[in-house]
Fold each of these.
Amino acid sequence: MLTYSDTKTFTAEELGGLFSSVGWESAKYPDRLARAMKGFATVFSAREEGRLAGLLAAMDDGEMTAYIHYLLVLPAFQGRGIGRQLLRMALGRYRGYTRVVLHAEGKASTFYSANGFFKLDAVCMGIVPEDR
């Protein structure tokens, strides 16, 4: 049975496993991920029999804008509505905000479009510090 919670405490191993399962580079830094979760304004997770099946982490300014930074579900659990439920929980938390934004690529764009998101006229930009 799936259970959902609002917690920021995870082991490095379970986060590393989740992020690795979807091929995200962040999986290389499980200890940093565990510490990072504590800094997010919102973290929702899904578990089945204690196993971390999905996670959503977002940051916000407390009034107007929220940014969903992570939404990922173990491949074995995808297609069961977990991502949709985590997203629903976050949108409930951010009801009344003027915008909720995220970055999406590939098939993730289809998922977010099906859940009410639309493409903004924006350019995603970044910088990678040389000393990381």
Amino acid sequence: MKRILIIGNAGSGKTTFAKALAEKTQLPLIHLDKLFWCGEWEHLSRDEFDTILQEELDKDEWIIDGNFGRTIPHRLKYCDTVFYFDLPTITCLWGSTVRVVKNYGKSRDDMGGNCPEYFDKQKVSLYKAIFFFNRKHRKRYRKLLEEQADKKIVIFKSRKQAYSYLNSLY
């Protein structure tokens, strides 16, 4: 495990898991949100983001935390391990809500730029994306992962499974 992808719905626990895994493995942790966001809820262009992402993918070791579905097929070419958080929608909605409450008015350390957490129209868009995520993406993600015969694939159906996995390491 030297190049690890952590993917899944927003609010599923990817970032919390990534931080704990990075601490246990001492692998460098890259948050896609930190690469993508800049300024006040502004983001890089697609080309700028893809260039920076490629620079990270070319490194020998990493954990990449974040979904960014458009880039998953490309990132899969570089990884040796994938952790897919395939959690129930309600769990993800709850996780996202807790994150907003916990970080209200502040920008999280896994975000780039100045992107404070608020309940606003942007959050409504996120909730809609979370609500429809499994319906829109689960089959495609499962198919993509099934095609990765040369990679270690771990699918978590609950946060408890993810924590048990972490506890089993070293």
Amino acid sequence: MNDTSMAVEIRYREMLMRLSPLQRFHMASGMFTDAKILVEESIRQQMGQITDAELKTELFKRFYACDFSETELAAITAHLKFHSS
């Protein structure tokens, strides 16, 4: 779904392109950090007390599960659990 008019999209892109590459990088990095904090809190609310390894695993699955096959996902999450303790 896209409810943004083409004129607004063009203006927004122009505004972003006026920023330096470093400014755009910092902006994107900050947004990712904010998203990660929100997702971590959501996981904690759903799962209660969890270990750091469990949090890392769940965070990975929330962000990247759709990018891997079930087999790949199982191998990656097993690795995270083993190496995060």
Amino acid sequence: MIDKIDERILEILQKNARTPYTQIAKEVGLSEGAIRKRIEALEKKGVIKKYVAIIDPKKIGYNSITLLGIDTEPTKLLEIANEISKLKEAKNVYLSTGDHMIMAEIWAKDGKELSNILANKIAKIEGVKRICPAIILEKLKEG
């Protein structure tokens, strides 16, 4: 389990994973060495899986971001999810309950490219029964 100090460290790292240990130490009232040990322990436990750069897709030319619900033949679910995970345009892929069996975040340059991805890459995967795209208009919160 993690304690309140670990929770605070995680909050700081979620806002900016590049926050120096000295800054974190100041904010939580511990030494830099103690922060280093706590972060290493969180990494070893798998609480912190990895550090990533969060990209604004529109600033690199991806103007059509879509949350895609995908329904499949039940026996093909994992196979299809793995196939979609291999697509460079699929930035996140989830197995889910609810309205759709698979949810995927798809990045495309524009509507034409999105249509091509949906029609020629995803809908044609054997076992895909239905795709339900929802184009993201604006992201209000991240992380």
